[in-house]
Amino acid sequence: MSVFKKLRNEYVIWHANRIKFPKFSPSPIVRKKVSFSGRVQKVGFRLEIYSIAERMKLTGWVKNLEDGSVEVEFQGEELQISFLVHCMQSLKRASVKKLTIIDLPISDGEENFIIVR
User: Fold this and answer.
1) What is the model's pLDDT at position 1?
2) Per-residue confidence at 72, pLDDT binned at 50, 70, 90?
3) In 3-state terms, what secondary structure has residue 114?
4) 3-class SS at 41?
5) What is the pLDDT of residues 87-114, one digit of tens each?
6) Strand (E) positions, 42-109?
7) Beta sheet of 113-116, edge-to-edge order
8) pLDDT of res. 71
9) Which active-site residues does the annotation give?
10) How far is CA 8 from CA 11, 13, 22, 42, 52, in A?
11) Considering the domain 3-19+28-116 in this protein, what is its CATH number?
12) Partner of 34 at 20 to 30 A CA spacing, among 15, 80, 86, 115?
């Protein structure tokens, strides 16, 4: 791993860990597929999503797509997922130009949030 990438990753994790979560009211458990398009690759976008999703105890996965977008499946409380999506839209080092959200059926037995390579 390059020195630059290592420093960027350390910064991304530091930034993700500084985000203050509001007190969420209980909300339904949902699963959503979210596609982020714009300048979302090579800026630590997946790592930021992963770090925040882990802190929130969401399950699912995140991956880069060949078209330059990032695709995510989140499962967890709806208000938490909405908060995380909003955080990613307002990220300064990235630029989300288009956002697509699709409701999916719940996936039973999923326990972790992972980065798909």
Assistant:
1) 75
2) very high
3) strand
4) coil
5) 999 999 999 999 999 999 999 999 999 9
6) 59-64, 70-77, 95-104
7) 95-104, 29-39, 70-77, 59-64, 113-116
8) 98
9) 46, 64
10) 5, 9, 26, 10, 16
11) 3.30.70.100
12) 15
